Amino acid sequence: MVFTFKIHPYAEVNANSSARELSESDLRILGNIGHGHFGEVYKAVLKTTDADKFVAVKLLKEKSTEVDKKEFFRELETMQLVPQHENVVAMLGYCKTAARAFLVLEYLGNGNLKTYLRKSRSNNIYGNLHGGSGKLTSQDLLSFALGSASGMAHIAKYKFLHRDLAARNILVSDTMVCKVSDFGLARDVIDSREYLSRMETPLPIRWMAPESISDSVYTTKSDVWSFGVLLWEIVTLGATPYPGITSGRELIREIRSGYRMEKPQHCTQELYNMMMMCWEEEPTERPTFDNLVTSLRDMANEEMKLHVDVDRAAEAIYCDIDSQLVGEIV
Predict the structure, then answer these.
(1) Which CATH number fits domain 24-106: 3.30.200.20, 3.30.160.270, 3.60.15.10, 3.10.180.10?
(2) Protein kinase domain location, by residue (predicted)?
């Protein structure tokens, strides 16, 4: 079987190449590295004229529904339309003509941010001082937050929504650069900047804004709410949001009543205030991603100030909930 690829003009494979076709022999599958909304994800080698390159291949599942296919190709279209950015996962190619369509994306060796943060707890690789090999620092965590916000600011600039922003959908490169992934789920194409979801699938309610939970309304501002939860995940080294709440029904009731997560004891009030601004009930009162980038950059430049005491973060007790136990995406 021969697979036909079109290479994204912003891709890293060959800066001087235009759209081209690649045969099956140009792609060597190495193994399964996970699964996404629409199928399996594989690590592979994309052979080029200069050097073999590791890539991630998102393969549409065999028994995909029409909704799966629609969402898959929407992601493909979105990634074609958003110019490359250092904090957004790059699409290197795609195939629409094979029996099972797939995307070819850049491969990021450290996997998703949620797993990366949790491993930092269990492996005891944390510390407050820079310079220690293999240690996460307060500056590292701020860098993760800043990179994620920068990627989202870039996506929002082109009027796209994410709708599932969380640490599990941020990938980490070998050089610890965070990149937003799985963002091609909706385009914000109308002035009201609203998107109505009618998909009957498990929802990531712990990251969802009140208006998204109640009315299925998604905007850039609901992505900002999700970023506040992502920031909490980063500060707590990948803990499940809303500790102590194990029922989705209870969580929805608490959020509607105005409940917000408490400040982690090991982060500054300034960083917690940023989370709380993201969690404003009124969407228009929430900051923009550009605002968040500016504030996080200012914090990152305060080298002598520890915004996260990561030693205490690792000692904190949080509950990591399994998705299958609660019937929601965590």
Answers:
(1) 3.30.200.20
(2) 27-304
CA 162 to chain centroid: 9
Every domain range in the chain assigned CATH 1.10.510.10: 113-326
Segment holding 39, helix H or strand E: strand 39-46
Binding-site annotation, residues for ATP: 58, 168
pLDDT at 214 over 80: yes
> Does position 239 have pLDDT exceeding 80, yes or no?
yes
> Residue 98: its pLDDT value, please?
66
Segments in the chain forming alpha helices (H): 66-81, 113-122, 138-157, 210-215, 220-235, 248-256, 269-278, 289-300, 310-315, 323-326
Say which residue, 71 or 160, is predicted with more confidence.
160
The residues near 263 (Cβ < 8 Å, ≥ 6 apart) are: 269, 272
Tokens of residue 71, six digits:
């969402």
Question: CB neighbours of 32 closer than 8 A, spacing ≥ 6?
Answer: 40, 41, 42, 43
Q: What is the CA radius of gyration of the chain?
A: 20
- Any idea which architecture 113-326 has in CATH? Orthogonal Bundle (1.10)
Tokens, residue 322: 């399994």
What are 46's strand-pairing partners?
27, 53
Main-chain dihedrals φ then ψ at residue 83, nearest 5 degrees: -60, 155
CA angle 24, 26, 32 (to 5 degrees): 75
Give me the phi and psi of 35, to 5 degrees please. -145, 150
Catalytic amino acids? 164
Q: What angle do CA 7, 12, 14 make, to 5 degrees?
A: 70
